[in-house]
């Protein structure tokens, strides 16, 4: 950018030395300077390599343990699990090249066994015995954030959603920042546990309240609820009384496998994705 300014100044001087020429030169330099600043800000937001980042915020009154699982053809994130205290924020960068897909979620009620040191969670446990999920996904029921990031610089949009297909454990919202296009938040901000049908409830082992809500597919495993077999197409698998409970509480989240029309979101080139657990409803 500095070289471009240096080449332009002799040309402007040759055209005239009047006040108007000087003003033009000054304006051009200011425009180029502002462009440089804007480019610098954009590069800083995206990172040097243009990769987006995930910013996690715990707005719950209790601690959560974030889990992250990469898709089969995607590299892992820097951390596959970590503790997030109430009101705390933490971030991770997405990989800097290629398409990346994966799922993000919150685990609750996690403890380490005092005798063995084995780590486990009351909901969404990934079964590794450790805070890190190490390439393993969560046990349902779980509220999932699903993300597919386009390769940086490809010009293609990202896709993202909140899915309750495997049930619900924690309210969650994912919101892109700095992108172009639709870029609306996807969320399940309502407390599905409070309206969970009796046969789908997961109650705390200590005898407390409802800590999670199974989907009908997880609870019963039938083709009708899981959209498999003869129900394996959008035409054959529609909403049920159970899925409508989830949809009423969380209108923009997937309530069953083919709930695409109101639940898939896109955004082009966002600098970050804000993932908030227990967002304001």
UniProtKB/TrEMBL annotation:
Coiled coil: none annotated. Disulfide bonds join 60-278, 110-121, 126-133, 183-267, 188-250, 196-213, 217-226, 227-237. InterPro entries: Osmotin/thaumatin-like_sf, Thaumatin, Thaumatin_CS. Pfam families: Thaumatin. Keywords: Disulfide bond, Signal. Residues 1-39 form the signal peptide. PROSITE patterns: THAUMATIN_1 (PS00316), THAUMATIN_2 (PS51367). PANTHER family: OS03G0233200 PROTEIN. This is Pathogenesis-related thaumatin superfamily protein. The lineage of its organism: Eukaryota, Viridiplantae, Streptophyta, Embryophyta, Tracheophyta.
């Amino acid at each position: 950018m500095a070289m471009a300014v240096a080449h332009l100044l002799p040309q402007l001087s040759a055209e005239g030395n009047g006040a108007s020429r000087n003003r033009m030169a000054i304006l051009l330099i200011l425009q180029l300077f502002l462009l440089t600043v804007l480019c610098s800000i954009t590069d800083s937001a995206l990172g040097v390599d243009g990769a987006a980042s995930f910013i996690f915020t715990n707005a719950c009154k209790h601690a959560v343990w974030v889990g992250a699982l990469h898709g089969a053809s995607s590299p892992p994130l820097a951390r596959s699990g970590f503790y997030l205290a109430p009101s705390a924020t933490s971030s991770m960068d997405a990989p800097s090249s290629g398409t990346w897909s994966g799922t993000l979620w919150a685990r609750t009620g996690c403890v380490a066994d005092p005798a063995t040191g084995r780590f486990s969670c009351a909901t969404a446990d990934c079964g590794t015995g450790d805070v890190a999920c190490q390439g393993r996904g969560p046990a349902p029921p779980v509220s999932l954030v699903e993300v597919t990031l386009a390769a940086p610089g490809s010009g293609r949009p990202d896709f993202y959603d909140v899915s309750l297909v495997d049930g619900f454990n924690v309210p969650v919202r994912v919101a892109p920042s700095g992108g172009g296009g639709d870029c609306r938040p996807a969320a399940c901000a309502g407390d599905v546990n409070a309206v969970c049908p009796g046969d789908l409830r997961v109650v705390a082992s200590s005898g407390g309240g409802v800590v999670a809500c199974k989907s009908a597919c997880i609870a019963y495993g039938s083709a009708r609820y899981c959209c498999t077999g003869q129900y394996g197409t959008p035409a054959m698998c529609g909403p049920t009384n159970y899925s409508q409970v989830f949809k009423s509480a969380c209108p923009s989240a997937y309530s069953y496998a083919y709930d695409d029309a109101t639940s898939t979101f896109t955004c082009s080139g966002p600098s970050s994705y804000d993932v908030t657990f227990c967002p304001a409803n």
